[in-house]
Design brief:
The complex is a heterodimer of chains A (429) and B (79). By secondary structure, chain A is of the alpha/beta class. Helices cover 24% and strands 31% of the residues of chain A. Chain A has an 8-stranded mixed beta sheet with strand order 2-1-10-9-11-12-13-14, with helices on both faces. In chain A, strands 6-5-3-4-7-8-18 form a 7-stranded mixed beta sheet, sandwiched between helices. In chain A, α1 packs across α2 and α7 crosses α8. Chain A is globular and about 65 Å long. The N terminus of chain A is likely disordered. Chain B starts with a helix and ends with a helix. The mean pLDDT of chain B is 89.
Chain lengths: 429, 79
């Protein structure tokens, strides 16, 4: 069992290997001279420990760091390096064995506070790049305190995502041990049990799949903290986690790249208390036209490659529709019809465009079907060219060339015509 | 001999496996879906959507119910 004495550096468990604090500190010393000499660094890696080493070095040395997702293509990473005039590219891909440090001669970049650039999900071409101050991204006030010191954490988000970074810095600041799962859900269940993981932060989808894969005779770890976020949190999933893991504390977090962490609720009920809207001690919230708005405080500084949706007076329109029932505010879903598939966002219009681009399809309507497992799945109705027979697997195969897996409708149904709402729009439910 | 609902669940799982070009394992009532079949979370969600369309029942209407095996899933559609 990893030693959990408080210290300023965490340790890690990955692939059944324990990386001690000393070993992690030694890794940092190996890379420190390289980082010291440069100012704007791009890292492209599927090794979470390597990423973590660079995060801490760049934070300490006040450098600018672009944290690329592991699945980015080499070409896209290289064009990013030239577009933003980076002076160091560090690549370490365990999947292909590729490892290199590419030093680029550049005009010296003046010393500053440094920052962290985080990519939204999507391919490089369309990804938004959010700029975060080091001191803000490392500051998750909800995740500090004696109760969480020296504990063992599961980090199941992508380590380069905003959520993954928040979990990492929380664990780091609390001198925790971080377990990175690399296998499937069942393997993760065995490891959570074996390493007695105490803190899990995940999407409702992840929680459901973890519980559905949990071997019936496997002991469940005693959780100090269970956290959910990234998707609408419903009462059933709160009850399921409460019953299954019996965590000391069960917390819902509502956070966004643009606004930072805005709502934290730990009363085992879905939604959040109505009086959060009035509470001066909390992040300011308001509801405008049934949509939640947040006063940005700890979020990003702005996007590098596009306009931010933060208004000039600092309010972020979240796009999440809410409803007040009794003393509580509940989330209803996206105002723009955006579909949330296990934490990944899909715009119906984008999928409709991919469908109608196929010559055998005249018209299409894409909408969400509620799913007990992943929150929602994408389904479609299509109006076919009457000359061409309907072939669902064939249509899906064609879509696979244009869309990532989670955006492909799981079910496509042929219809005579597409239903239109009274406002002349395609119905999205 | 499996009961009709279990057979339906197995048929639908087999269809989804085929449509996604995945290797087909032996499918029995005691097969654990997420670990003993090649279905991932999205493919399993598809199975559930198709089951609802075929049976007209939505056992998850009131929220998530945990299930692991094919038999446990089929049982939810029997009530």
């Amino acid at each position: 069992m990893p030693n959990s004495t408080a210290n300023s550096v965490p340790s890690f468990i990955i692939n059944d290997r324990l990386i001690t604090r000393e070993k992690f500190a030694a890794f940092m010393e190996v890379y420190r001279p390289l980082v010291v000499e440069h100012s704007r660094i791009v890292v492209h890696t599927d090794d979470p420990i390597f990423l973590n080493v660079l995060l801490i070095l760049c934070r300490t040395l006040k450098k600018e760091l672009f944290a690329c997702h592991a699945y980015f293509k080499e070409d896209d990473v290289e064009s990013l390096v030239s577009k933003y005039s980076a002076d160091l590219l560090l690549t370490r891909l365990m999947s292909t064995g590729m490892e290199r440090a590419l030093k680029l001669k550049k005009e010296p970049i003046p010393d500053g506070e440094g920052c962290l650039y985080v990519f939204t999900s999507g391919t490089t071409g369309e990804a938004k790049i959010a700029r975060h101050c080091w001191h803000k991204i490392a500051l998750s006030a909800d995740f500090v305190g004696e109760r969480l010191k020296g504990k063992r954490w599961l980090l199941c988000y992508s380590p380069t995502s905003y959520a993954g970074l928040q979990v990492f810095f929380s664990a780091y600041q609390n001198a925790g041990t971080i377990y990175y799962p690399l296998g499937g859900y069942e393997q993760t269940a065995y490891d959570l049990s074996k390493y007695e993981i105490q803190i899990i932060s995940a999407t409702p989808t992840y929680w459901r799949l973890l519980m559905a894969s949990w071997p019936s005779d496997l002991p469940r770890p005693r959780l100090v903290q269970a956290t959910l976020g990234g998707e609408i949190v419903t009462q059933d999933i709160l009850d399921a986690i409460r019953g299954f893991f019996k965590p000391e504390k069960l917390t819902q977090i509502y956070a966004s790249t643009e606004a930072g962490t805005a709502i934290v609720v730990s009363d085992d009920r879905a939604g959040f208390p109505l009086d959060y809207l009035e509470d001066q001690s909390r992040v300011p919230l308001r509801i405008v036209d049934n949509v939640l708005e947040i006063k940005a405080h700890a979020g990003m500084e702005g996007y590098l490659n596009r306009e931010s949706s933060v208004t000039s007076d600092g309010w972020v329109r979240t796009g999440d529709a809410v409803e007040i029932r009794g003393d509580r505010v509940y989330f209803l879903g996206r105002q723009d019809g955006m579909i949330n598939v296990g934490g990944l966002k899909v715009l119906p219009e984008e999928v409709e465009a991919a469908l109608t681009a196929l010559e055998e399809i005249r018209d299409a309507r894409v909408f969400a079907k509620k799913s007990p497992l992943v929150g929602a799945v994408v389904v479609a109705e299509v109006v076919m060219d009457p000359q061409i027979p309907f072939d669902e697997p064939g249509l899906k195969a064609k879509l696979k060339k244009r869309l990532p897996e989670y955006k492909i409708p799981r079910m496509i149904m042929p219809v005579e015509k597409i239903e239109i709402s009274e406002h002349g729009k395609k119905r999205r439910f | 001999m499996n009961d009709p609902t279990t057979s339906l669940v197995i048929d639908i799982i087999r269809d989804v496996i085929k449509q996604n070009n995945l290797p087909e394992p032996e499918l029995k009532p005691e097969t654990v879906i997420l670990t003993e079949t090649p279905l991932d979370s999205l493919a399993l969600a598809e199975v559930v959507v198709r089951l609802e369309t075929k049976t007209g029942k939505d056992p998850f209407a009131q929220g998530f119910i945990n299930f692991r095996t094919i038999g446990e899933l089929a049982k939810l559609y029997c009530q």
